[in-house]
Amino acid sequence: MLTRVPKPNCRSDRNSTEVRGITICLSVVTLALASSATARSFAQSSETTPREEFQQYVTQLQANPSDNALRTKIIQLALTLDPKPAVPEDAAVDAAKGKTIFASASSPDELKAAAAAFAQASQIAPWVPDNYYNEGLALEKVKQYDDAIRDLNFYLLAAPGASDTADVRGKIEGIKYEMSKAASEAQDNELLARKYGAGADPLDLLYRYGGAFSDLRIDGLGNTHGVSLKISTVRDGAAMYDELMVCDLDVMGLHQIRLTDLNGSGNIPFVIRTSRGQANFVMNYDQSLHGDMEIILSPAANTTSSIRTSLSELYRERAREAYYAKFVRSSVGSRQFLGVPETVVLDNRGFGVIVLFDTSALDHIDDGDWRALEPSLVVFSSYSAGGNTHPCSGTSDLGIIDGARYHVEYESDGTWNIFSGSANGGTCP
Fold first, then answer.
1. What's the order of all strands across the beta sheet hosting 265-274?
2. Which end of the chain has the smaller Cβ count within 10 Å, N or C?
3. Is 0.70 surpassed by the pTM of this model?
């Protein structure tokens, strides 16, 4: 007997299947949503906030202070943060230190110390504008112009719209002008040092440099002689006096005129005689109300060819020669320390005197009183006997300089050195 199998309840089965299907579908959807939420949570945990990124940059900059591109990025990012980053106490302390030093600074070293304190404050808090401004001011005063401009530009970047923006931009342009002027002066000083330095010929230093020089046409035929006009200080016993020294370099003739013989205005004709012939000259001079003197030197046969100068310029030019001479020992000039002040020594070799200048006067060759450019001491380096010039030997006393006594010791080759103490005697006074 066959047993009938009951027909399944399709609705029930169908419903059961749909419920599972729905259950399975919901499980998949739930799993997907859960996975998405987990991924979003992970992404959020791995993202860096602007403030965290800012702090990372600051840490990196402290390890590499010269990274100006990173410093710029920090300043720009700080401007977007709200609230603004707090200033660490150490930065505030360094800034206050810099202000205190700057307020009482009286030397370049103190100004550099102030700048260093502001720089340290900017290292800790590189987004603070005032530290850049203050450091820029200090660096400008010690003529570190590139760094000053850099810091003032950082100030403008960190303080957009500041009320003094126009003033700071004007200051930057002013510093750029000072930079160009300093570069020009450095180039001039380099040329002067080369002109008066160890590469120059001794006769050029003695006659051509340190005074006024020109190739003068001595006649109507176009013949020329190189002629120089210089100031020379000589000693006569205990007295010192100044002379105008005229030298014809072509015939090596020399003529000297004491300044004490020149008063008011006038002219002096003279002849430079040598075994090769003679050269006739005339010097016109005119002393102004201010004590300076205009001088015109020309060949007697051709007064249109001349050297035009002044007494003040001749004094300044000799001082430049002393200041820029770089010779060691006595070749033509040297720089030596005598006691506390530095004294520049100019040896007019062949002319027989060692001339010493205090640098307090030479530091103001162009902007100071030209009458202050007198040497402080003069001592002989050679002497005349039997119609010939001989180098000194032994020692010569220089007297008291800054509270200490000094003397010159002469070598057999005509050179000399300066030492402390008294002279032991020699052939020169």
1. 265-274, 277-287, 293-299, 307-310
2. N
3. no
